[in-house]
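TEACHING EXERCISE
Course module: macromolecular assemblies
Task: Read the component lines below, then compare them to the predicted structure of the full complex.
Student: A.B.
Group: 4
Components provided:
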Amino acid sequence: MKTMNVKKKTRITIVFIVLLAVVVGLISYPKAVQKIPFLYNIFNKKKINLGLDLQGGIHLEYTADVSNVDKNKISESLQGAQDVIERRINAFGVGEPLVQSARSGGEYRIIIELPGIKNIEDAKKKIKETPFLEFKEEAGEADLKESNKIFDSMNAQSKKKADEILQKALKGENFEELAKANSQDPGSKDKGGDLEFVKKGTLVPEFDKVLFEGSLKNGEVYSQLVETQFGWHIIKFIESKGDGDNKEVHAEHILFAKRDASQFPEFKYKTTGLSGKNLKSASVVFANQGLSDPEISIKFDAEGTKIFADLTKRNIGKTIAIYLDGEVLSAPRVQAEITTGDAVITGTFTIDEAKELARNLNEGALPVPLILVSQQSIEASLGEASLKQSLNAGMIGLALVVIFMLLYYRYLGLIASLALLIYTGIMISLFKLLGFTLTLSGIAGFILSIGMAVDANILIFERTKEEIRRGRGIQGALDEGFKRAWTSIRDGNVSTIITSLILIQMGTGFVKGFAVTLVVGVLVSMFTAVTISRTLIRFMVGEWVKDKLWMIGVKKKSEEDFK
Amino acid sequence: MINIINKTKYAYIFSGTLTILSVVSLFVWGMKFGIDFTGGTLMEVKFENSVPNNQELTENLKALELKSLTFQATDKKTVIIRYAAEDDKINDEVLKDIKAKYSDASQLRVDFIDSSVSKDLKKNSIWAILFAVGGIMAYIAWAFRKVSRPVQSWKYGAGAVIALLHDILITVGVFSILGHFKGVEVGVPFIAALLTILGFSVHDTIVVYDRTRENLLRSSSKEKFPEVVNRSLNETLVRSINTSLTVIITLLAIYFFGGESIKYFALALLVGVTFGTYSSIFVASALLVTSYEWQKNNS
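Instructor-supplied answer key:
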């Protein structure tokens, strides 16, 4: 009775297996039913995704600079950057581009894959072109004081030098030469510090005091350094003409500049959080009624309008700097609070530049700056060649393994080959149905897994042959063979799975593709060994083999001595 | 029945020699690392007419003061140019300079890896290998916990690990030599191959250990440990060779037909798997017996 049930179960399973074989076969190779359009359409629905190394294309990785972003807003910004880039890439018309963000170490990366693109530099430019727009306000007193500390020592040095040169000038060294060599006033330096004839009030009050109210003789150098907002000056009085309100003085000076934070935009301005991500739209307008002086009119989104209103409210009379990709584009002075969320960006644009900028702003301005850290390009023809070659290799590999199995294990080898073909069909179907991207390394992993899938079968067969040699009946030998072999199969595959999981964890691209295919391959091969191989064996091998042991490669009289 | 255990002496000499040669090669020639691990740029430029030689190209690019600049001519009328680079802007200039002098030049591909990324890759690779070895050792110790006599179960793990370290070392040695003489580069795919070899080599070793365990549990007290091990080896010999053979067949198919890009990846796997099989048969079990003999001699 027990045997009858087993036989029945076996028959049912065989039916399932045959169905499975047909289904996966058709999914893998829909062309077989090309003539039956109804079936063909069902099976041809899913195509295999080809990876970059098989299609050709570009792989780019950027690091997002999140140093200015609020910690909780980081993922929002990354998503924003991703969206912007996706929009720009879709404009290329590339089939199935991939844009994703990832975390690596402490950094946030954006990974872009563009299959089929030939010109890597063009693509990069287009991506990089996503402009990074920022609005910054003037830093407050406290911030400036902090920054100024850096300049204090620089200025002390400057003053020291000024003193030195003053002594030289007083001693009678050639003033013009000293000016040419040391003056930091670009307007007069090359002329020997010559300021030409000026009326009172043209220069700063400190100069006027010395030149108009002092009593210097012609050609005399003023004996002290004169400090102004610009720094320390050495002044030489040349001559004067006229008098009263019309008096004009001719003088020369050497400037030793004072530096402070407000001269440098980086210190002068601080971030406000208002950036390109808050832009709703941008368009080109013209300042004059004609077609000259193009400007960019921008409109903020709801959040941006609010921030902008606050910004303008607290900065009335001060400047707000508009930065594009890290450089100040313009710094208009705020006249009044702007609550409408409209603003105008002026600059020295040509019409084309303005149009370009407006377009870029519209397609999306990057919320965070991006730095390229890695790129890889594969030429399309190289990719195609790789695909063809590796598929060839796969088929040859499969064929060779089948031949080997038939030669060595004969009838059992036939069973193993059938199981192997079904295994291949299942793997291909999984790839198609689950939308795995097939890469070169994936194919390598798959081919390797073919060699390993056969492994399970060999284990079972060898063990079975051994049991037969020991004198067991065929059925018993098969059962025992399977039972004993299973622990080996399981243990051996576990180690491959462990290393594959580690590879998946640490790897990107090539490595991941290989490891994933390997793991899936190992798991599927265990399944095929347990169900398919076992059932096929049960179905196709019976007691009748006892008289035809040569069919499975067992020598009738055992010559090996095992005891 | 073939007496394998008797021949452990030869196996130790063979393995020992190869291992020492590999270590020496590593010290003397090192490995030829690709940009995955060194960072920088790799650019392949095709020349329609005649291909300029290295000196001419060096002259051509002198103004850019590139560091670690190397040229490698291929047989497809292209030159592979490598140099250290901190950002990708320099690549434009390199191409411009080349095109200025050789108008028939075209860029087939340009790969660039920032040094922070390559540092990460190096670090991750080492961790991956350590994790893998640790994980495998733990797994074997657990799987073989029931056979503590006459040799403790941790020694099974140790035996397997020594065998697979031997496989890895020889594979690395082979690529160190290939790197020095044929300029074959080693990148992340090579690490993937090493990790696969780890997984696979242990697979084989476990099969033999499995059989040994089974035989030990079944054996009579008359049969001494080395004999049990030898018998186990014989029983699993055909099986070990055959399973490795099928994998080697598929790898050979990839090596000969699979195309340029995965050729050396397949080669690494081939070397590793071949030695993995050899070490499972001749080294792993031999170590068990050797440790048993030491135990016996010391007690």
